[in-house]
Amino acid sequence: MPERILTTAEIKRWRQYLADERAEAAVYRDLAKRREGEEHTILMALAAAEGRHEQHWLDLLGEHAAQPVRASLHNQFLGMLARRFGSVFVLALAQRSESRSPYATDADATDAMAADEAIHEEVVRGLATRGRIRLSGSFRAAVFGANDGLVSNLSLVVGMAATGVGSSVVLFSGIAGLLAGALSMGAGEFVSVRSQRELLDASQPTQVTLSAAPSLDLENNELVLVYLARGMSREAAEHRAAERMGQFTCDCDPSLSLTPEKFEEASEHETLGTAWGAASSSFCFFASGAIIPIIPFLFGMTGIGALLLSCVLVGITLMGTGAVVGLLSGASPLWRGLRQLAIGMGAAAATYLLGLLFGGLVG
């Protein structure tokens, strides 16, 4: 059978596939270096799979594989991040990369390769999800606080400017908005976390069943009601009550044995620490966003120039926070950034129009 003559387009496409497979395998190996146990094993298995794909393109290219090409800019960037950071952001980018594999529509790639890429996306999604879960609480607070500061203070600044007041009034209004909003966010977060902890404290069962059990009336044993109220089935509640009454020598289900004394020892410190930490974080996140709209005014700029620069700075920041959210969620960073920008500028535009209206009425 005569050897197939490769076209220039085929050679170019396959070389690119080869370079990208090598780059993706390197990304997974670099990520694996920063992990241990199961995650390390999973990432090395992904690297091995990319190696099998690499061999497929080597076999097709034959002697034409001797002239390697650079991986795509996306994979080069991903490799740089993996070598230096290895965080959930890299996994999120790798997830998007796997989801955009061209093998499903390329006749030169095998069905097994296309299936591998689809499975790889789910594997990387699972690994990235672990990181997203670890980040979710603090990341949500950071994004929510900073965005709230950005949008609310920009709206305040442009609204005041639209009324026709002087730049000094706009500046002090922005400073007042920053302080008021940051303090409000901090106080609200403190109350929220403290109240949540107090609710948990009130719901924590005590060990009164241990001290009261010897004196209970065996004929009218209300200890069963305690366990029923805690959500146990009647059979389990009666068995647990019998244990507490000394009718069994075993602790048949240790998971039901609570140690609230230990909980109470740490409760006050944990409550204050968590509440104050959440309050200070919210204050700082809000303030970091709220200061951006007033930066031009702080440096002495006035008039429409200061207002436009303020909008530009806030717009860039909104695009950045939106892109990060999109990246972590596995969505398009560009579209998430544009969405954040549209929401923030929409709120500012509405406030500006209201400022014009009020300024006209007062004038």
Secondary structure: elements and pairs:
Elements: H1 8-33, H2 37-61, H3 73-84, H4 88-99, H5 111-162, H6 167-203, H7 208-212, H8 223-229, H9 234-244, H10 260-290, H11 295-298, H12 303-329, H13 333-362
Helix pairs in contact: 1-2, 1-3, 2-5, 3-4, 4-5, 4-12, 5-6, 5-10, 5-12, 5-13, 6-10, 8-9, 12-13
What does this structure look like?
With 363 residues, the chain is mainly alpha-helical. It has helices at 8-33, 37-61, 73-84, 88-99, 111-162, 167-203, 208-212, 223-229, 234-244, 260-290, 295-298, 303-329, 333-362. α3 runs antiparallel to α4, α4 (88-99) packs across α5 (111-162) and α5 packs antiparallel against α12 (303-329). The chain is flat and about 80 Å long. The N and C termini lie far apart (91 Å).
Give short descriptive properties of this protein:
363 residues, mainly alpha, 77% helix
- What's the mean pLDDT score? 78
Main beta sheet strand tally, sense and closure? none
DSSP summary, beta strand count: 0
Terminal CA distance: 91 Å
- The rough form would be described as flat
> Which class best fits the helix and strand makeup?
mainly alpha
Tell me the strand percentage band: under 5%
Helix content: over 70%
Number of helices: 13
Low-confidence stretches: 215-220, 257-272
In angstroms, what is the radius of gyration?
A: 30 Å
Write down the secondary-structure element order: HHHHHHHHHHHHH
In brief, what are we looking at here?
The protein has 13 helices and no strands. It is mostly helical.
